[in-house]
Amino acid sequence: MNSIWILLPVLFPSALAVLIFLLKPKEKIRNYIMGIGITSNFFFVVFVLKYLGVREFHLFKLNEFLQIYFKVDKLGIMFALLVSVLWIFTALYAMEYMKHEGKEDRFFMFFSITLGVTLGIAFSGNLITLYFFYEFLTLCTFPLVIHNGSKQALKAGKKYLIYSFGGASLVLVGMILLFSLTNDLSFLPGGILSNLTNLDNEIVLVTFVVMFMGFGVKAALVPFHSWLPSAMVAPTPVSSLLHAVAVVKSGIFALVRMCYFIFGAKAIEDSGGQLIISVFIGLTILMGSFLALHQDNLKKRLAYSTISQLGYILLGIVLLNEDALIGGLLHLINHAVIKITLFFCAGAIMYTTHKTKISEINGIGKRMPITMWCFAISSISLIGIPPTNGFVSKWFLAIGGLHVGKIIFPIILLVSALLTALYLMPVVSAAFFKKGDFEEGVIKEAPLKMLIPIVSITIITILLGLFPNLVIDYLREIAQAVL
């Protein structure tokens, strides 16, 4: 079968956006178009994976540096499936939520384009292709961040652009340095530097650190994290995309590609880059948790939580051993499903009560029991209490830290887990055990279009904790191929 079919799930969402722009359909018709289109795109991804397998498609080549091509491999498959599944739930949730935000057609246009761009990142065959889609991701998510057009939103959007383009500039500098060493930017399991001898470790170190910091901007690596809490001014479906699916996970995905398909574990260890980056990651894990403790705004508390949890994944990447990488990739998946649920629950509270602060939701568990039980289950999972999915991924990360003789990393994970409990469980406690304005009156849950995604992803979260072996075995294959 022709490899050009790889482009189908990448380009089809943009066709959906064009269709909405041209037709300007009524709400019901637009929702049908989006629902059928986003779901169809999931099946297009499955089609590509089933019938094409591991295959490449070269779209454009000007020289060895500027060549655009796509490749399907196990890591890309994992990311593409995660994105495609969670996008369906987000689309359904947004159909209801965006009613009170306005400008729905514009939202769904960029929402759809962002899906295609994210899948382009998943299927990129080399670093320059990934970089182009990485830049497109900034451009197509910017209108989502500034959706409501307020002064605060525009300020957040400006910060988002400055940080994102600043990080992209670092990546570009790193790519030029890298190309001077390798004359190749293709993704190769184990890294293209592993095949080279007589490398200058100082140049490798500078290149690695510059590129890691560049991609680390979207992954909210401290000190490049402040754009993420600021972006909470965006509608909740956008926050879910930023924190759980598209932007931050694209940053993580790019770092996995860079570390294990460009540099390789040996080159990183020999250069000493692992030690330098580990300091920033430790700060990211702890600082995110400490800052979350002081936030009364629920979405901002979840935003700082995301920064800390992304540090877990980054830790799994730079420890450079099999268990740690499995833990990092597993937490990429687990954090995505947990955090999107938490944001959906926060959005449901805002939608039904117009409350945004934790201090204002005392007793809301009696009014919205399903929503808050899903929030509680997701919170327990994020803390990492057995037998949740969060515990499984953190267990692998701790074992990975011990394998390299660094007991400090398991200690950091334990301290962060305690802090996670301290900033999430008070929300649950306030909802169920404190008296407040929501105790009396008729119980009013979120609308069904919002409740179905919340409950469905909570069930997925539970299943990933109870039956993790299928995912772990798949991730082990990825880890063994690159280490």
TrEMBL record:
Residue ranges annotated for the NADH-Ubiquinone oxidoreductase (complex I) chain 5 N-terminal domain, each copy included: 67-108
Superkingdom of the organism of origin: Bacteria
One matching Pfam family: Proton_antipo_N
Membrane as UniProt keyword: yes
Transmembrane regions: 6-23, 32-54, 74-95, 107-125, 160-183, 203-228, 240-263, 275-293, 302-320, 332-350, 370-387, 407-434, 446-467
GO molecular function: oxidoreductase activity
Membrane topology category: Multi-pass membrane protein
Domain NADH:quinone oxidoreductase/Mrp antiporter transmembrane: 124-420
Protein localization: Cell membrane; Membrane
Main location: membrane
UniProt KW Transmembrane keyword: yes
InterPro entries: ComplexI-like_HydComp, ND/Mrp_TM, Proton_antipo_N
Keywords linked to the UniProt accession: Cell membrane, Membrane, Oxidoreductase, Transmembrane, Transmembrane helix
GO annotation, cellular component aspect: plasma membrane
Listed PANTHER family: HYDROGENASE-4 COMPONENT F, NADH-UBIQUINONE_PLASTOQUINONE
Assigned protein family: Belongs to the CPA3 antiporters (TC 2.A.63) subunit A family.
Name this polypeptide is given: Multisubunit sodium/proton antiporter, MrpD subunit
